[in-house]
Specification:
Helix content is 57%, strand content 4%. The chain has helices at 47-61, 65-78, 83-95, 99-112, 117-128, 133-146, 151-163, 167-180, 186-197, 201-214, 220-232, 236-249, 254-268, 272-283, 292-309, 312-327, 339-350, 353-358, 386-394, 407-414, 427-444, 464-470, 483-492, 507-527, 537-542, 544-554, 566-573, 581-584, 600-603, 607-616; strands spanning 376-380, 399-403, 452-456, 475-480, 532-536. The protein has a five-stranded parallel beta sheet. It is globular and about 80 Å long.
Length: 621
């Protein structure tokens, strides 16, 4: 998945009865530890093996991986092809983050006991964790053919869809999970999480309120997510009320505590006394006693409070702690988290003058037949004002913006051998890829015949070469902001780390990622005939009309007064999926301009990395 932003609503492992991604034999998550077919009748005389397998399953369920592995190894010494032991060894490997080894052993188990749905689900999980999405879906389908009512199929397939931004499909899986387990909290929590990722915040509210109404005792996490969703919708009073209720039940619930603080902070608009009160309350939350991965939420909020108080050294320290705790999240151990950077390096190595000169000329295209306008791509580095700009454009009656959906990813996936295959593309191949894109937009609900459709995905900047080759008529709106402000803001933001966002866990990593992305962008500008209009954040917040009117003209649109109040549009829209939601729902302000200078001492080590880009883009240090 490319660098789209995801909201910071998380389901902690095991919360509210949620089944873990790693299914374990001997526990409810795996539907029970069943001996391989035919073993039951032969159990007499083999009690020791059965006991050892069950003991291994219990060790795995308790997280004692070494003991589980030893138990499985003991069985395999006696029976080298024992399917349950092979399955158990695979699950141990999956628990250790070695999905490739896990797939090998679980596949061997599946071949020996092909009628066990939990084995196929676990095989799908091992494949999913390697990014083998199609193979994983096939494994889940095998499990479904065996038992169409097996809940773990829908849980794990839904997680795959959610992780790959196929949100409608994810929600469908979790809806089915609700049907199968209407009195469990986990299905409602999963559905709410997927709805939030999709920007369907009011649907997320519905899932949470359904859980509260149907369950005898809903877990605190339901109220914590409900409060967070209200805060995202700008319903601050409701957010404060529900978060406070959650804190009565669980005073150290990090999600509820952060939402309670953030909603009050947004309401107060910088009141010094309240900021001091909130800071004291969060510090009394006993950060050291809160689950490691959750305490990062409070470090994030403390950093924002200190920033508003003007205590920048303390703020920077809290943001550093936030990112340190993010670095320890289990998801970051997956090899896939280095793929985005490897892809950028591959693009840099591929797009040379020699490569571009080899590309055969293809006929120009003015506009796709039946479409109101040429395709528009809104790109730029994260935290460069893309969300503000997308709200401005979407407010125009002639524009429809799609916010951070991986639409271009579908084109990239269909372009076999990308990026090197671009040099061999002919007109037929280009047309096939264009149809993939129109189909993705149509599925997302685009009014291609009636409006100028804008695809806003900031880090699609790295695929500008694909855009140029497949959509020669495209208009590119490029959001610019001072490089130091972009890098600092990314470091300070509590992103859910995917392959791109993981770069922002250190200040140096943020700066080097900026350097890598803008070096590639500059290469594209030098080699390709891109049709680009730059919009500078600093100019936008200083004089919106002066900066936006030329951009609208670039898109073939006239000025409309509706675009002058993006905050009102953002509140009415209620589907802002990016971390900037709280900024763009308030009147435009300029206090974020030159923000990096307040942190100049902390920024000094990375300024040499950014200096060439600062100077080339016309900024200064």
């Amino acid at each position: 998945m490319q660098g789209s932003f995801k909201p910071t609503v998380r389901l902690p492992a095991g919360a509210a009865g949620a089944r873990p991604a790693v299914q374990v034999p001997g526990g409810a998550a795996a539907g029970g530890f069943r001996p391989a077919a035919g073993q039951a009748e032969k159990a007499a005389g083999r009690d020791d093996i059965i006991k050892l397998l069950r003991l291994g399953g219990a060790h795995l369920a308790a997280g004692r991986l070494e003991h589980a592995s030893a138990a499985a190894a003991g069985v395999l010494k006696v029976e080298p092809r024992n399917p349950d032991a092979l399955h158990l060894i695979g699950l141990v490997a999956l628990g250790r983050g070695d999905a490739e080894k896990a797939e090998k052993f679980i596949a061997a188990a599946a071949a020996l006991m092909p009628r066990h749905p939990n084995v196929w689900v676990n095989l799908g999980n091992a494949q999913r964790d390697q990014g083998k999405d199609d193979e994983a879906i096939s494994s889940y389908l095998r499990a479904e053919a065996i038992d169409p009512n097996y809940p773990d199929i829908f849980l794990n397939r839904g997680q795959l869809y959610q992780d790959t931004a196929r949100y409608a499909e994810a929600i469908g899986e979790f809806e089915r999970l609700i049907e199968l387990s209407p009195l469990e909290a986990a299905p409602y929590l999963r559905a709410a999480s997927a709805a939030i990722d999709a920007g369907q915040f009011r649907e997320a509210v519905r899932y949470c309120t359904d859980a509260l109404g149907r369950l005898d005792r809903a877990p605190v996490q339901v109220k914590a997510i409900l409060a967070t969703t209200y805060e995202r919708l700008g319903q601050l009073d409701e957010a404060i009320e529900v978060a406070a209720e959650a804190l009565v039940e669980q005073p150290r619930n990090a999600g509820a505590l952060r939402t309670w603080s953030k909603a009050r902070r947004r309401k107060s608009k910088g009141d010094p006394a309240l900021l001091a009160e909130l800071r004291d309350r969060l510090k009394r939350g006993e950060l050291e006693n809160i689950q490691h991965e959750d305490s990062r939420l409070l470090y994030s909020e403390l950093g924002q409070i200190c920033d508003e108080q003007g205590e920048y050294a303390e703020a920077f320290g809290y943001f550093t702690s936030m990112n340190d705790h993010t670095s320890s999240l289990p998801a970051l151990k997956k090899p896939a988290h280095g793929k985005f950077n490897r892809d950028v390096d591959d693009l840099l190595g591929t797009f040379t003058k020699k490569f571009v000169d080899k590309m055969p000329a293809l006929p120009g295209i003015e506009r796709e037949p039946g479409h109101a306008a040429a395709p528009v791509f809104l790109i730029g580095f994260p935290r460069s004002g893309t969300t503000l700009l997308d709200q401005i454009l979407d407010a125009h009656p002639g524009v429809q913006v799609f916010e951070e959906l991986p639409l271009l990813n579908k084109v990239k996936k269909a372009c076999l051998g990308y990026p090197k295959s671009l040099a061999d593309m002919n007109e037929v191949g280009r047309e096939q890829l264009r149809q993939v894109y129109w189909g993705a937009l149509d599925e997302a609900g685009a009014d291609l015949a009636g409006k100028t459709v804008v695809n806003k995905m900031p880090l699609d900047v790295v695929h500008a070469g694909l855009i140029a080759r497949v959509f020669p008529e495209a208009r590119i709106v490029f959001a610019l902001r001072h490089p130091a402000d972009c890098v600092l803001s990314c470091f300070m933001q509590d992103f859910v780390p995917n392959g791109a966002m993981v770069n922002f866990l250190t200040l140096e990593g943020s700066a080097r990622f900026y350097d890598r992305v803008f070096t590639l962008w500059q290469r594209y500008r030098e080699l390709l005939p891109l049709n680009v209009r730059e919009v500078r954040y600093e100019n936008l917040v200083a004089d919106l009309r002066a900066e936006v009117e030329p951009a609208l003209a670039f898109l073939g649109l006239e000025w409309d007064d509706a675009v002058s109040d993006p905050a009102a549009h953002a509140l009415a829209r209620g589907t802002i999926r990016t971390p900037s939601y709280s900024q763009v729902t308030q009147p435009i302000y300029s206090s974020a301009t030159e923000r990096w200078r307040r942190y100049e001492e902390q920024m000094k080590p990375v300024l040499p990395i950014l200096r060439p880009h600062v100077e080339r883009l016309g900024y200064s240090l």
